[in-house]
Amino acid sequence: MTGKTIVITSGKGGVGKTTTTANIGAGLAMRGHRVAVIDTDIGLRNLDVVMGLENRIVYDLVDIIEGNCKLHQGLIRDKNDSNLYLIPAAQTRDKNCIDREQLKTLCGRLEGEFDYVLIDCPAGIEQGFKNAIGAAHEAIIVTTPEVSAIRDADRVIGLLEAEGLHNPRLIINRVRPGMVKRGDMMGKEDIVELLAIDVIGMVPADDRLIIATNQGVPVIHDKRSTSGAAFSRIAARIDGDDVPLMELRPKSGVMDKVRVIMGINRGAYSHA
Predict the structure, then answer these.
(1) Which residues pair with 4 in a beta bridge?
(2) Alpha carbons 180 and 262: distance in angstroms, whole number
(3) How far is Cα 200 from Cα 206, in angstroms, rounded to an integer?
(4) pTM of the predicted model over 0.85
């Protein structure tokens, strides 16, 4: 088996990169692939919490790299899908305790056992970022439709290109179609014009995603969630399926309002 390593990055923190990693990993596993997700945010790990695996941690990324445990001992199997595994970040170590060659070697080992290896990249552009992108074959950038996030995404695109990671793809997160329609939020066309990058998916703002994250279950498992449906489509595109990118539209019909009141499809947006 020769797997593929994909880094999921953003430059700016707080745009939903870790949640995106968890949901793409779950989506690819649901499609029958063996998937390993790695939290490389040493000192500030969160991927384990988003996946609801924080109580299962015995060893972490640094333990594996330093040889304190065997690789299979550091892999934590997901609760919802036996095809999905997590390597958590170390919580009490410094970001500089590993280097890019060590992470690249680890990903190479994982590629022999997994179809996809997803790296949850630390925010910023310091050493942790350099380690993560140095180990990857492809890159996905997560942004929100905010000027500061898009400016940081533009900076990251340039750094990825300089490292040989050409043609990264973009996920636009927390889109509010009503605000886009009113001109209060940038739409897909505006962002693509600024960044000159292909969009692989748009994820609507969705209360059900917040609830799922707090419960430690990727929202992709929630069949009523609009954001979960968006992540399913993103996973399909990563996997090579030609799934059309659907525009998000605000819903305003009477029955749609009733569904929102009753808690059905709370995001009240079309799937992306």
Answers:
(1) 116
(2) 25
(3) 19
(4) yes
